[in-house]
Amino acid sequence: MNALRTIQEVFSRYKILALLIAIALIWAFFTWQSEGAFLTSRNISNLFRQMAITAMLACGMVFVIIAGEIDLSVGSMLGLLGGVAAVLDVSFQVPFWANLCIVLTLGMLLGLFNGYWVAYLRVPSFIVGLAGMLVFRGALLAVTDGATIPIESKAFVGFGQAYLPAGVGYVLAVLLFGLMVVLTLRTRAGRRRYQLEVAPWWQEGAKLAAIAIIIGGFVSVLNSYEGIPVPVLLMLVILGAFSFMARRTVFGRRIYAVGSNLEATRLSGVNTKLVKMSLFGLMGAMCALAGLTNTARLAAGSPSAGNMGELDAIASCFIGGTSMRGGSGTVLGAIIGALIMASLDNGMSMLSVESYWQMIVKGSILLLAVWLDVVSSKGSER
């Protein structure tokens, strides 16, 4: 019983720290088993490029789950939008930036279509997502004619395969750390203004020092290979934008309110239907970005693209501490959850683990993450 309460307290109060410890243990195990090959700069770069696609889906999915819904169509939507982008590039020679705008718009419209069925027609999101999974996968097969479509545009391929120069990476690292310092000072000033408790300077200094070490190590490792991959940079931009939206905007607060108590939020004057539909539209945009990145990374549109992608995205959110009951979760947690999933995939593939064992391990970890959520909720109800 004491051990159970300890798990409850650690997971509920220090979720991000617990996830980082889990990543450290996973990396240590695979480094030991691979005789150091796992932690080479080349493999770490490949690992982050692989996780970027799942992380994009997870960033959209975390808001959908926080609002008390689910979307099972995201893997098929990713594949369809990536296939459409390949067809536009090869068959119609559409310039990449125009291609990007078209596919983003289409993704948002498909997401809004799903959201309209959920929010206004009151069809359960599970059913809408399941139907979308079948419809979008069928549409992908029709668009690609069941064949792989190789990409010819260098700009398109560069979107998934290019790297930033080392100097640019270090400049971005300095700017990011400076932004963290500014946000820390603003937060302290705001808490003083409202006469709230302010953490001691040594604690803030230790936190900033840890952030500086993580940012510096991250950029140094990637620069020691080829530089920061463009998909990883895009993922970090999405992380920053979505975290800001969740914490600093009215819309972000409404997302949590809808998931925490839908009826009370509706009675307070919030258009809860519009909020939910907007979240599915945002999810569609993330599917478009992930689909474009996946097609660019593979340099081809594949009829099997995005297969099981919805499960990886959902698992990343739950592993990252998002509550399956809604109302609780963070974008950072979902990103770290995606990193855990990608680390398991990468490490087990490197060790030549059979695919069925990989599925068993990932499913078991998802079950454990949901159990921890249930355990934590029981502890809070007492």
From TrEMBL:
Pfam families: BPD_transp_2. Signal peptide: none annotated. It is a multi-pass membrane protein. It is found in: Cell membrane. The keyword Ribonucleoprotein does not apply. The chain crosses the membrane at residues 12-30, 50-67, 74-90, 96-119, 126-143, 163-185, 205-222, 228-246, 326-344. Keywords: Cell inner membrane, Cell membrane, Membrane, Sugar transport, Transmembrane, Transmembrane helix, Transport. One of its GO terms (molecular function) is transmembrane transporter activity. One of its GO terms (cellular component) is plasma membrane. InterPro entries: ABC_transp_permease (IPR001851). It comes from the Bacteria. Its main location: membrane. Part of the binding-protein-dependent transport system for D-xylose. Probably responsible for the translocation of the substrate across the membrane. PANTHER family: ABC TRANSPORTER PERMEASE PROTEIN YPHD-RELATED-RELATED, XYLOSE TRANSPORT SYSTEM PERMEASE PROTEIN XYLH. This is Xylose transport system permease protein XylH. It comes from Candidatus Dactylopiibacterium carminicum.
